[in-house]
Amino acid sequence: MQGNMMDVQLTVPTILERIRTQYAGREVVSLLVAGRDEQGNPVPHKHRTTYGQVADRARRLAGGLLGLGLTKGDRVATLAVNSFRHLEAYLGVPSAGLVLHTVNIRLHPEQIAWILNHAEDRVLLIENVFAAMIPAIKAACPHLEHILVLGPTPQPIPLPGVRDYDTFVQESEALTRYPDLDERDAAAMCYTSGTTGNPKGVVYTHRSTVLHSLASAPKDGLNVGEADTVLPIVPMFHVNAWGLPYTCAMYGAKQVYAGVFADGRSVATLLQDEAVTITAGVPTIWMGLLAELDRAAQAGQPYVLGGLERLIVGGSAAPEAMIRAFQTRHGLSLLQAWGMTETHPLGTASGVPYGVDASSDEAFTLRAKQGRTVPLIELDLLDDQGQRLPHDGKTMGRLIIRGPWVASSYFKGEGQSNFFDLDGQGWFDTGDIATLDERGYMHIQDRAKDLIKSGGEWISSVDLENAIMAHPAVNLCAVIAMDDPKWDERPLAVVTPKPGQSVTHDELISFIAPRFAKWWLPDATVLTDSIPIGATGKILKRELRDQYRSYSSTQGLVTPAAPDRSE
Amino acid sequence: MQGNMMDVQLTVPTILERIRTQYAGREVVSLLVAGRDEQGNPVPHKHRTTYGQVADRARRLAGGLLGLGLTKGDRVATLAVNSFRHLEAYLGVPSAGLVLHTVNIRLHPEQIAWILNHAEDRVLLIENVFAAMIPAIKAACPHLEHILVLGPTPQPIPLPGVRDYDTFVQESEALTRYPDLDERDAAAMCYTSGTTGNPKGVVYTHRSTVLHSLASAPKDGLNVGEADTVLPIVPMFHVNAWGLPYTCAMYGAKQVYAGVFADGRSVATLLQDEAVTITAGVPTIWMGLLAELDRAAQAGQPYVLGGLERLIVGGSAAPEAMIRAFQTRHGLSLLQAWGMTETHPLGTASGVPYGVDASSDEAFTLRAKQGRTVPLIELDLLDDQGQRLPHDGKTMGRLIIRGPWVASSYFKGEGQSNFFDLDGQGWFDTGDIATLDERGYMHIQDRAKDLIKSGGEWISSVDLENAIMAHPAVNLCAVIAMDDPKWDERPLAVVTPKPGQSVTHDELISFIAPRFAKWWLPDATVLTDSIPIGATGKILKRELRDQYRSYSSTQGLVTPAAPDRSE
């Protein structure tokens, strides 16, 4: 028996219509680049507009793109920072039935061209600060028919097909009747970071975009409402800025965009001046903010951030020490969230469960995990034979995920081995090793490929890294496997100390020893000036492994005894 | 171009699995009937259980029902009050692929039998307090194969097919693998109150149930999270208790059920003792609560309700005076919400928009409207020719609604004239007359059939009623049309004064005159002891109109002059 509810499709135009009809007066604030100072650093200019104007321009953009002859499903790429113009593309492109393809601006130009060609983008929206790349991109991507430049340029770019975005929008007719859309039509796409092999395209649907916004908005997730002011530091070129531009628009929250200004001082100032209530970014951003807040407090001029309710942290794990530092030194609450490009991204959030005292050690331990699923997301653990493992908080297994905003394949059918059936249901293999506990808390132990297999047992590099990074002299740490004749692999800590500080292997080991079985402890520590970071801010462990695979504990700073497996 | 997201269906079992795997320790509290006192009044007994136990029993109920031979789409009726057992049915019945059919216990037994027969229910879950009805129901509904009695009875009921629900659940095998469900399969059904013609069945889908929960949970809607304790006074037999049992389960909020104890004192005590944060009910309930809170405060023993963040009011319009009374006398915030059986029910909620001072008159005026749509719901206004009307806050029109949890038809295809196409999209005609303003605030003026048409212009009976009910001597008021030889219809106020108080027509008219055009003011007032109320708590205006249609202002308490249309 079928029900008799309307078959109304879940589509992005419904979000666009909400800001137009209910939240037209709510603000969108963007830090744009006004010019350069004498050192060549960008100088900010604060731009203010409203949802009403954004909606009008988004509908003009939609109308203009269709006027160029684009048809349903055509891809429109962006190479852009966070700003109101990017938001217009977020809303306008899918509302025209086209596909918003956000490209990571931190990639190498050759990778950018590869991705633009692979996605077969017909239009590119490019930020004025990257305008110098246009000739090279045009040369490498002959199928790109139109390039719209976001923001003013010192002089016009005299190349065919290149025009000013603002002029294009102003001169276009607004689309007032949206095309018929099926909720399973493509709305947006984003490529994975591709630390192994070529990047792969994930194609989000209108349905997944709307459901992700609905499910992530409530209290125990992002907690977004009309009275909020949200600063997504997480870039809009990466997994839809965790869906925040859509979620905020759906619920009428004011949005603030930092553009290229993501340093601690710029972020702290913006949080204070715009009375931000919710912000979101990767741990690196919060490290910078923490340093700035500490500095200002020590200088007796602390920032006033009384209304800041929630700093959402994701992209990689936030160490417990960082969560504690924000809470105890500044009264600010970090909420850890977890997801992937393939999961839109929100999979879990790690609030304190009912019944646990928020100031207890247990609360901080839980908050340093990846957390519990948002509604409609399922997680499970598999062993190497594909059997389900217990959710006991201890057993490590391969983390698999399913849900209505989880990818079922990559663009053009690539990477099929990541998708599989289990008991008649489709799942995605995250490539992570994790535990799940009785309350549903998920804790990532490692990327499967980064896990250290020592004497047939698994050692989590992530746990060791978090523990080592809590040491006051440590800036950054990566724990990787080095080859070992007896145990196959043994952990090696690669550490960058804080400026002007030093630390020894023995000091680090005694610092972390109380928290681990003896055989987990790294056999050696390498001190280095720099650890390689990829385009999405993650440590490139592959490079470190190539460099240190044959490192032996005998050549380290110290030569500890063979690992004791008695515990 | 289609996206490549998983085709995971939105179904009720995902809600059941959440309380089982993430919120198993969260409580469900129910006031049950322990017996009767000397006056025959029910004596409460407080029952406590957990989501873990509810989930286990819901899965046993599901397994047991399938064991009786029921198959997908079969209807399981409930005649039950709010309690954990009803919650088990909410979760267990749809998870078995069956359809939960909640029946209004306040209907006349003949209407109940008519509805059970119309829905072709195969199983009935009936509360022990209604057990006396079982023989009559069995006689009237020969197709009812099984009756499960919720809660203990003084002695077993020796009728074939009748058994104890708790025993049935205990003895059944839990369903651990849910049937394959399409999200458009029926999950639940509820009949309209049928103030005109026979009741009509609205069949909710799994999809509409899940979407309704997702969209209603955020901040500006119900604002439900794991830390909340929610008391739905609104009955579970009526439009799924506004979806709260599902929404609370999805987000892990503790639930409190008042059973048959909905009087002001019981409610106030329960709010205080269980530290309720969110509660929901019709205006009548809050009138009773307000009186009790006033009494206790005057007696110097006020209730302690510090954690009570939100009283949601719906079902019929809450007068501004009531919203102000709660806010100013008790610091409690009423949130008006609007919906219908056909809309699952949540369509709008009326919070204070960003930028309006919460203590201003404008804020209270807005809060007394029905409010703005929740995501995915669209509203519009039509004139008598089916043309769209402006959203200017003044123009009254027929309110139409569409969205993924709005009915597209009634069960068995009845009442088709309420559903129609406009510009290729399906809409439902609410039968209400409303205004919509530039910010999206909807304000119901009247039921179309209750609207007073005077000299070709419309007069809103609801506006007049709300204004009159703000008078301190008035308990209840209905404004209806009386026939008028010159103007076709003129408004008549039917008023019940508060106990021991009286009021004259002139007093009422001078009290409300500043707020209305002169020709809107009622020509006469009838004072009466009682105003007829229907099974869902709404005034039966049809009965009043039958009684007073030919009433003439000349026979009233006063005889005012003919209406002055100069304004």
Automatic annotation (TrEMBL), chains A, B:
PROSITE patterns registered for this protein in UniProt: AMP_BINDING
Q: What is its EC number?
A: 6.2.1.-
Cite the AMP-dependent synthetase/ligase domain residue spans from the record: 46-411
Which stretches make up the AMP-binding enzyme C-terminal domain? 464-538
Q: Enumerate the InterPro entries for this protein.
A: AMP-bd_C (IPR025110), AMP-bd_C_sf (IPR045851), AMP-binding_CS (IPR020845), AMP-dep_synth/lig_dom (IPR000873), ANL_N_sf (IPR042099), ATP-dep_AMP-bd_enzyme (IPR050237)
- Tell me where the signal peptide lies: none
Q: Which UniProt keywords apply?
A: Ligase
**What Gene Ontology molecular function terms does this protein carry?**
ligase activity, forming carbon-sulfur bonds
Top-level taxon of the source organism = Bacteria
NCBIfam families referenced in this protein's UniProt entry, alphabetically: PRK06187.1
Entry's family note:
Belongs to the ATP-dependent AMP-binding enzyme family.
Q: Which PANTHER family match?
A: LONG-CHAIN-FATTY-ACID--COA LIGASE (PTHR43767), MEDIUM-CHAIN-FATTY-ACID--COA LIGASE (PTHR43767:SF11)
Would you tell me the protein name for this molecule?
A: Fatty-acyl-CoA synthase
- Species: Deinococcus soli
